[in-house]
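ZP: hey, is the zinc ion complex queued? I don't see it on the tracker
AM: it wasn't, my bad. submitting now with these inputs:
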Amino acid sequence: MKSVELLDTTLRDGAQSEGISFSVHDKLAIVETLDALGIPLIEAGNPGSNPKDMDFFRAVRALKLAHARIAAFGATRKPGTSVADDAQVQSLAGANASVLVIFGKSWNLHVTEVLKTTLAENVSMIRDTIAFAKTRAERVIYDAEHFYDGWLANRAYALQTVEAAAEAGADTIGLCDTNGGTFPETIGEATADVVKHLRGRAAVGIHTHDDSGLAVANALAAVRAGATHVQGTLAGFGERCGNANLSTILANLQLKAGYACIPADCLPNLTAATRRVAEISNIVLPDGMPYVGTKAFTHKAGMHMDGVRKCSTAFEHVPPESVGGARRFLISEIAGRSAVLERIRRVEPSVQKNDKMVDALVKQLKQLEQAGYQFEGADGSFDLLVRKALGTYQPHFTLEHYQIIGERPARTEQQGSAAIVKISVAGCTEITTAEGDGPVNALDRSLRKALERFYPSLTNMRLSDFKVRVLDGNRATEAKVRVLIESTDGRDIWSTVGVSTDMIEASWLALVDSIEYWLIRNEGPKVGRA
Ligand SMILES: [Zn+2]
């Protein structure tokens, strides 16, 4: 089996994404996640650029990594200086990283118009910096910035820059589509040109961005043309429209193109690892993300469900379990009886096709949908509905009452509301108060505080998304609202729903379902001890 080496740059290029700010702790958690997935190279920042990055390099050395090596990232020396006098280049050595990635200019326009130096000086800058890096690290990668734009503008010069890097000792030349505007045909042609030109003196790599929606296609085109090293970010995070999505690339290469990227037994961890990186980054992954999104193996049309049950390849390009995903059948009026039966069997496999409870549940489902519920995106609530219909549902707690207090103007932004919650668990009552950023947040915090005494595992779950939809909008304040809550424990994601004319009440119903769903799966159906 041919192999392709992956370099994840979530900590460097990914950190340049809007809305991302990693602490040292976040970075270490991402390193551990990527390492467990079997990613061989992890690019971190420049140790000289800020003290936080230096702290990271110091701390990462203490981690015991099974697969990954950490790479430090920096630029070629400044024009008109020597590497010895260039603080940025010297600081790279301070990272003590066994792999150094040096980026430089390969597009003549950048050399003369941005760097304001000569084409010859830029080639010397590449040569000097790579040669220095080679004395400080086992492995040196030259990232040829804007390579493809440069290749189109001045092919001879672009090739001269990578030639200089290879001569100076670079082990791998990463060809970058920095602006993300190149088409796969050009990527293929230019990459093949470099492979031919270098004649094996250095490996060829690819680094793409998604500005034209082609980052994955472009990376695959480069591999087809002879690239053996692919750079990207596991969840596709990165500047502007993002970097090449490594989760998609590695699944494509490994499952469909016959390349080994990570150890075969790590591939089923792909979905969990990608979601974990998103979780640490505090970014919600698109539901429709290839292979790892929550909708990746979701079926709604009755005909598709029927087809996939008979033969999974009828409507699935790969088996969901190959990447650690799960097939989902959406429950709605149009799904029909067989989809409902399928979902019931996930809770209780012994239920027969002609069981009366199936019809009763289908009927109840229709009534609830009429009342404004939607279970399509609320698998957690549907699971509980099935347990109630089976008679196996035992609530872990009961509500005595709750009260919400709003304070205007709020003293601080986070504490404009407070909630008092009184619950009972197996005869013990608990009253708690908590403040929150709005009434629902206060209610959530207060309820958790009350329950954590009985169920300490609840600290592992949290709400990750909250959507409110006003139904029947023409009756204004009389209208019902549907609240959809998404919760996560960092591994799994589940959704629950509540409907009421009162927004707080609808939120409460969805909140209780979310917590009950977690407790059933993590504490079993028993009632906890006080
Ligand atoms: Zn980039």
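AM: back. The mean pLDDT is 91.
ZP: great, adding it to the tracker
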